């Protein structure tokens, strides 16, 4: 057994692309297969005739399993994608040695972070410090419950889904501030405070840009919003899409709005005192949030899972990843916006723009 | 100065962890002097250090794996180096990059009053890279040597001489 | 001209002035004054618009000599004013009320020589660590008394509750090199800046007294590792000047070409790191890619990528190799195309303009009082460049065109540096066609320089680099002092930074293009 293992990793290091490529393809196929199995099993159980609560419970468990696998698989994938995209935009290739095309880089990172020492400084405020990396996932997971990946791939279709999403979305700055306040450190505190003002300022344009979509679709449920998009709403509401997208970039703390984690001004911002797996959780949360805001943008504006020929979830992931690519493009092109310029931009430009759009849409819909 | 390992050791798990750690060593930005420019050049587009997994240059010591000490250690910065080393989360390694970090470099003369001759007088060093400044390829070689130290297998082995 | 008027004023104040040959000494007027009169002299210079170049001290064992260098932007004839004090009573009035830029030079002299300056606001140690026992640059062992060892460790808020002290550095991704700033903050605004240097103090000046000229020469490249050839040129030029060595024309043109290539490389590095500070990660990679092209050319010629030991007294080490001029020409074409990329990516970017326009305004008068030189000065509307006012090497044949902008803010400093890259490319294009045949090194160079002092100035990418060598006829320097451009530029930051946001302070600090080892020497 040991010999077999040694042989396998000696071959890893030599990077035999064909062998490892097959492994990589198998992993990707496995993910796809996993989701399809969940779908089929869900439908089959439905027809099996269990009691309603039994069926529902199994369906819920399978759904959450699917959601978690999407969340973590997505985070792993996005880490690799970000590095490769960044590398190619910067005249170089990103990770290349660890597995074919560097595909196993995120796996190596994850295992390394799991094996790192967890340092808890003596002076921190323990409950806040320890809970922050865990709680930062809460809004993300709740939002994932209501996102429609396909016509029948949705854990729960809640009729007030939009309200739920926006309400839970405002919990993210809370956990960021917990991290900043809990690690008793001037820099983290500054980072946490900046993060809160930024996220509060940019939530309002986000809400204001989603309301016209809701008005056009006539419902707060995400499935109905997607079903109502015969013409994708990006064509009917371009202004709302722009406002939503810019607010989304600000909500996920990405450049050009990444002041809370600004590396050159405050040394790493609010997560400076975290090490090992806790830091990995912040990282994962950032990529999960990225996926979620792009998934919501797809649902609201690009038509969700609608599209010809291919199954729905292929279209959904394709559109979401296209938007994620655009966000990464922003990150590696623009410098950082100064804090007061950031807030001015939101309060004095985005909010009035979104309100005007809302009024115009309301007028048109009424007529 | 020795760092003790854990009390209970699992052979296979340790090997897997070392393999993962070797492939994703995150350096800390601790560029002090001229060698810092060569370190920056190594992360730039031509001698891309990110190919080997060492992409994320975290400025906070708690989140990085190894410290590249590049530049002269003066008496004023020595306590800072020591503090940063102690703040790093183990497992951690140190690469002394450049002649100044190895033994004081070209700044040693009789009755000198301000530099520490070599960073290994204050923190334990794993890999020494000589040069003033060393070429970026030397830093890549140092990273490969560090990976060899962790896993026992040398990536891109140098072929043996046969003459 | 201005110099004649000042000469009259100084003679009226009782300064003992005489004119000295510039080709041998590097300055035009040499004056001696009693220590009580130095403040009046400084005021006289200030009225006529002179700027403070350097303040230094030499320890002749039975007396200490303080030398003040003054220069003018339009009439660049240097004045060197000397004050002698006895070591038993080393007290001199400070001129920092007239020229704030001299304040830090005086601090440095205080901690290295033990001279006390009356009326100086803050004489705490700038460079040295608190366990130092004797004044380092004094010839004998002169112990430091306890009350002089005031070192700034940290600061607590005094009185007012709303401000707090924050520490930026020394390990900091933003400051280029190890620089520690104590910032007194009120919310997001900076009230006061207290820098602490000395984290890279590598005893360059003390080492020069222990080593011979040839042994010391490689260290000149380690002072400013981004633009080392200007410092090497300074050292070699000073020795050539005092020994009267005639450098062949081929060597002069080679020196010009390498200096200009180095200037472009330094500006590219600045560009990459400045934008990295502001948050844009991509131009850093583009800039380093272009820089690697230059480094390839220079490596083929000199053998090193970063710290060159290429110049020798009387010429250069080795003649040009085949294909060098052609590679330079290819590079010029490539760089011109790439400058368009930079313009598209950075210059027109609204976020970049928003971060840098109107930020860190350095007015002309302030630049004069602090002794700011280089692209920072040229962005404030003053066309002062040592390559034109005191030509050396191949600049006697070609004068470069200077890039001047009037805006005084960070955006203009960025534009000036981009313009300088363009001008350097123009100059290179002219120069590579005009490299004459001949020897690349002078035939005979004297073994030891004659007794006396000499000053030499060159234009590094950061500003005016000066070297002042006092020789006692042996093969080691008696005293060697570097006039470092980053040091003089940085003093103005303490004044500039008041009332700024941290983000603006970071942007301004980056735009001043500081290299810390040349500040700390």
Concise synopsis of the structure shown:
Chain A has about 375 residues and is mainly alpha-helical.
- C-alpha Rg of chain C, in Å? 23 Å
Main β-sheet description of chain C: 5 strands, mixed
Shape descriptor of chain C reads globular
| DSSP helical segment count of chain C | 19
Query: Tell me about the biggest sheet of chain A?
Result: none
CATH superfamily of the largest domain in chain C: Cytochrome-c3 Hydrogenase, chain B
Most extensive protein-chain contact, per-chain counts: A-B, 42 and 32 residues
Describe what this molecule looks like in 3D.
The complex is a heterotrimer of chains A (367), B (163) and C (521). By secondary structure, chain A is mainly alpha-helical. Chain A folds into two domains: 1-115, no CATH class; 120-367, no CATH class. Chain A contains 15 helices and no strands. The mean pLDDT of chain A is 82. Chain B has one domain: Rossmann fold (3-Layer(aba) Sandwich). Chain B contains five helices and four strands, in the order αβαβαβαβα. Chain B has helices spanning 11-23, 34-43, 78-87, 99-103, 136-151; strands at residues 27-28, 66-70, 93-97, 127-129. Chain B has a four-stranded parallel sheet with strand order 1-2-3-4. The mean pLDDT of chain B is 85. Chain C is of the alpha+beta class and 521 residues long. Chain C has three domains: 2-142, Beta Polymerase, domain 2 (2-Layer Sandwich); 163-196, no CATH class; 206-520, Orthogonal Bundle (Cytochrome-c3 Hydrogenase, chain B), CATH 1.10.645.10. Chain C is built from 19 helices and 15 strands. Chain C has a five-stranded mixed sheet with strand order 1-2-5-4-3. A three-stranded antiparallel sheet of chain C has the order 8-9-10. In chain C, strand 11 and strand 12 form a beta hairpin. Chain C starts with a helix and ends with a helix. Chains in contact: A-B, A-C, B-C.
Key words describing this protein structure:
heterotrimer, A: 367 residues, mainly alpha, 2 domains, 15 helices, C: 521 residues, alpha+beta, Beta Polymerase, domain 2, Cytochrome-c3 Hydrogenase, chain B, 3 domains, 5-stranded mixed beta sheet, 3-stranded antiparallel beta sheet, 15 strands, globular
Topology overview:
The complex is a heterotrimer of chains A (367), B (163) and C (521).
Chain A: H1 2-14, H2 17-48, H3 52-89, H4 105-114, H5 126-135, H6 138-146, H7 161-169, H8 172-182, H9 186-217, H10 222-227, H11 233-236, H12 238-251, H13 276-302, H14 312-331, H15 339-366
Chain B: H1 11-23, E1 27-28, H2 34-43, E2 66-70, H3 78-87, E3 93-97, H4 99-103, E4 127-129, H5 136-151
Parallel strand pairs in B: 1-2, 2-3, 3-4
Chain C: H1 2-13, E1 16-19, H2 22-25, E2 29-32, H3 38-47, E3 51-60, E4 63-71, E5 79-85, E6 91-93, H4 102-113, E7 116-118, E8 163-168, E9 180-186, E10 189-196, H5 204-210, H6 213-216, H7 219-223, H8 228-243, H9 249-278, H10 282-302, E11 311-312, E12 315-316, H11 324-347, H12 350-356, H13 364-370, H14 375-378, H15 386-389, H16 410-432, E13 452-460, E14 463-471, E15 477-483, H17 485-496, H18 502-511, H19 516-520
Helix pairs in contact in C: 1-3, 8-9, 9-10, 9-16, 9-18, 10-11, 11-16
């Amino acid at each position: 057994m040991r010999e077999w293992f040694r042989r396998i990793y000696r071959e890893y290091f030599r990077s035999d692309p064909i062998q490892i490529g097959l492994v990589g393809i198998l992993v990707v196929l496995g993910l796809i297969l996993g989701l399809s199995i969940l779908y089929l099993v869900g439908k089959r159980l439905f027809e099996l005739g269990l009691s309603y609560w039994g069926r529902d419970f199994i369906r819920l468990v399978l759904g959450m399993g699917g959601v978690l696998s999407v969340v973590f698989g997505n985070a792993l994938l996005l880490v690799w994608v970000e590095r490769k995209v960044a590398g190619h935009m910067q005249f170089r290739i990103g990770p290349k040695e660890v597995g074919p095309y560097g595909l196993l880089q995120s796996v190596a990172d994850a295992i390394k972070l799991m094996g790192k020492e967890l340092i808890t400084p003596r002076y921190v405020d323990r409950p806040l410090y320890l809970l922050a990396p865990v709680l930062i996932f809460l809004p993300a997971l709740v939002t994932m419950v209501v996102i429609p990946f396909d016509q029948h791939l949705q854990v729960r279709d809640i009729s007030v889904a939009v309200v739920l999403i926006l309400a839970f979305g405002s919990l993210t700055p809370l956990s960021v501030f917990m991290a900043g306040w809990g690690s008793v450190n001037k820099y983290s505190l500054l980072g946490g405070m900046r993060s809160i003002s930024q996220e509060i300022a940019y939530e309002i344009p986000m809400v204001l840009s989603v309301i016209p979509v809701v008005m056009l679709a006539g419902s707060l449920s995400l499935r109905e919003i997607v079903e109502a998009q015969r013409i994708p709403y990006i064509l009917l509401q371009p202004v709302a899409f722009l406002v939503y997208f810019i607010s989304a970039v600000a909500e996920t703390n990405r450049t050009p709005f990444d002041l809370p984690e600004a590396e050159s001004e405050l040394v790493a911002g609010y997560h400076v005192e975290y090490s090992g797996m806790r830091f990995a959780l912040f990282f994962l949360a950032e990529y999960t949030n990225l996926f979620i805001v792009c998934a919501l943008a797809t649902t609201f504006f690009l038509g969700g899972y609608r599209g010809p020929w291919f199954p729905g979830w292929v279209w959904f992931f394709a559109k979401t990843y296209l938007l994620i690519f655009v966000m990464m493009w922003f990150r590696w092109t623009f410098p950082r916006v100064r804090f007061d310029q950031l807030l001015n931009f939101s309060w004095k430009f985005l909010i009035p723009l979104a309100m005007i759009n809302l009024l115009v849409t309301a007028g048109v819909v009424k007529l | 100065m020795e760092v003790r390992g854990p009390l209970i050791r699992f052979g296979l798990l340790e090997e897997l962890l070392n393999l993962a750690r070797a492939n994703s060593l995150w350096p800390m930005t601790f560029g002090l002097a001229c060698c810092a420019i060569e370190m920056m050049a190594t992360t730039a587009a031509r001698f891309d250090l990110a190919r080997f997994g060492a992409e994320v240059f975290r400025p906070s010591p708690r989140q990085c794996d190894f410290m590249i000490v590049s530049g002269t250690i003066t008496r004023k910065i020595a306590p800072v180096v020591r503090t940063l080393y102690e703040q790093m989360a183990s497992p951690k390694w140190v690469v002394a990059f450049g002649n100044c970090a190895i033994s004081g470099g070209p700044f040693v003369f009789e009755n000198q009053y301000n530099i520490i001759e070599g960073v290994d007088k204050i923190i334990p060093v794993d890999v020494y890279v000589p040069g003033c400044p060393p070429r970026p390829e030397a830093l890549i070689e140092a990273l490969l040597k560090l990976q060899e130290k962790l896993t026992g297998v040398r990536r891109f082995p140098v072929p043996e001489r046969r003459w | 001209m201005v110099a004649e008027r000042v000469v009259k004023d100084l003679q009226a104040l009782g300064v003992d002035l005489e004119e000295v040959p510039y080709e041998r000494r590097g300055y035009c007027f040499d004056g001696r004054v009693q220590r009580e009169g130095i403040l009046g002299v400084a005021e006289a210079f200030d009225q006529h618009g002179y700027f403070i170049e350097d303040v230094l001290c030499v320890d002749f064992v039975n007396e200490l000599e303080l030398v003040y260098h003054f220069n003018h932007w339009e009439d660049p004839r240097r004045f060197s004013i000397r004050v002698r004090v006895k070591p038993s009573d080393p007290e001199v009035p400070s001129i920092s009320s007239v020229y704030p830029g001299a304040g830090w030079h005086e601090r440095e002299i205080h901690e290295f020589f033990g001279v006390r300056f009356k009326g100086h606001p803050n004489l705490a140690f700038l460079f040295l660590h608190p366990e130092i026992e004797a004044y380092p640059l004094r010839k004998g062992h002169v112990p430091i008394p306890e009350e002089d060892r005031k070192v700034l460790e940290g600061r607590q808020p005094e009185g007012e509750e709303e401000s707090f002290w924050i520490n930026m550095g020394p390990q900091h991704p933003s400051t280029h090199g190890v620089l520690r700033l104590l910032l007194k903050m009120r919310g997001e605004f900076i009230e006061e800046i207290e820098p602490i240097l000395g984290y890279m103090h590598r005893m360059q000046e003390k080492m020069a007294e222990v080593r011979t000229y040839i042994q010391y020469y490689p260290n000149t490249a380690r002072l400013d590792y981004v633009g080392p050839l200007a410092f090497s040129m300074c050292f070699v030029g000073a020795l050539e000047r005092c020994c009267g060595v005639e450098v062949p024309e081929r060597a002069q043109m080679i020196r010009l070409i390498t200096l200009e290539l180095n200037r472009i490389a330094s500006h590219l590095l600045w560009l990459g790191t400045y934008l990295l500070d502001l948050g844009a990660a991509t131009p850093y990679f583009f800039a380093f890619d272009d820089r690697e092209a230059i480094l390839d050319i220079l490596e083929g010629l000199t053998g090193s990528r970063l710290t060159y030991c290429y110049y020798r007294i009387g010429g250069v080490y080795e003649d040009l190799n085949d294909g060098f001029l052609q590679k330079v020409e290819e590079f010029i074409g490539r760089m011109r195309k790439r400058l368009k990329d930079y313009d598209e990516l950075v210059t027109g970017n609204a976020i970049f303009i928003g971060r840098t326009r109107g930020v860190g305004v350095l007015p002309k008068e302030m630049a004069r009082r602090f002794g700011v030189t280089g692209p920072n000065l040229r962005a404030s509307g003053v066309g002062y460049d040592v390559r034109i006012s005191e030509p050396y090497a191949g600049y006697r044949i070609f004068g470069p065109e200077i890039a001047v902008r009037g805006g005084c803010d960070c955006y203009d400093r960025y534009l000036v540096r981009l313009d300088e890259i363009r001008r350097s490319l123009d100059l290179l294009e002219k120069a590579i066609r005009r490299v004459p045949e001949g020897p690349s090194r002078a035939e005979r160079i004297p073994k030891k320089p004659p007794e006396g002092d000499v000053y030499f100035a060159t234009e590094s990418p950061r500003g005016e680099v000066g070297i002042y060598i006092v020789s006692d006829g042996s093969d080691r320097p008696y005293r060697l002092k570097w006039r470092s451009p980053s040091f003089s530029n940085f003093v103005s930051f303490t004044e500039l930074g008041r009332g700024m946001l941290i983000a603006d302070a970071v942007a301004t600090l980056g735009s001043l293009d500081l290299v810390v080892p040349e500040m700390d020497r």
